[in-house]
Amino acid sequence: QSALTQPASVSGSPGQSITISCTGTSSDVGSYKLVSWYQHHPGKAPKLMIYEGSKRPSGVSNRFSGSKSGNTASLTISGLQAEDEADYYCCSYAGSSTFVVFGGGTKLTVL
Amino acid sequence: QVQLVQSGAEVKKPGSSVKVSCKASRGTFTSYTISWVRQAPGQGLQWMGRIIPVFGTANYAQNFQDRVTITADESTSTAYMELSSLRSEDTAVYYCAREGEFCTNAVCYTDWFDPWGQGTLVTVSS
Known about the structure:
The complex is a heterodimer.
Chain A: E1 9-12, E2 18-23, E3 35-40, E4 47-50, E5 64-69, E6 72-77, E7 86-93, H1 95-98, E8 100-102, E9 106-110
Parallel strand pairs in A: 1-9
Antiparallel strand pairs in A: 2-6, 3-4, 3-7, 5-6, 7-8, 7-9
Chain B: E1 3-6, E2 10-12, E3 18-25, E4 33-39, E5 45-52, E6 57-60, E7 68-73, E8 78-83, E9 92-104, E10 107-116, E11 120-124
Parallel strand pairs in B: 2-11
Antiparallel strand pairs in B: 1-3, 3-8, 4-5, 4-9, 5-6, 7-8, 9-10, 9-11
């Protein structure tokens, strides 16, 4: 069982927007702005998409955005494209004992 | 930009150990923090631990504290993850990743992981 809770799957049609939630606790997501999101195509290395809750690394499309409210972080992908189909994982700093926790992952299907 | 290249796939017997390497090319290895994350079949990502090569200090996730050892060799810009007492549940893809930190008031916190190595499949089977 993962420390952060994500929906197992979400789907959307090309051009639509989807949002993936990531629910933690006051010990991780709720206490730190240090939430990151990763895109993972099977057989490839995970790719950083969002860090510090809402910042995009250089080279990541502005169709990807992140936010946080209380113990829940969210990743929104707008203008869905076929290549967005992948697994998405959230991650949060969780204090100096636990350090880091990941979500269980969400499979995004582009219909 | 730094690249992380991991060692190849391994097949191990239950009870044995495995040591996976992660070599950094480009960039200044000693300034990095390297984390190890694994993904078991059908499962999510799981953080195992990290090392700060310049200090040689390692931190481990509680789930792996007794079985994992993370080390680094600055002379070859290589980090290592050794997992002992292997069992079938340790069958997974193991990734190394550079860890970015957010520092404030002289305290640093894990912020992100980028880039990641290509992954190393470790299969534990009798």
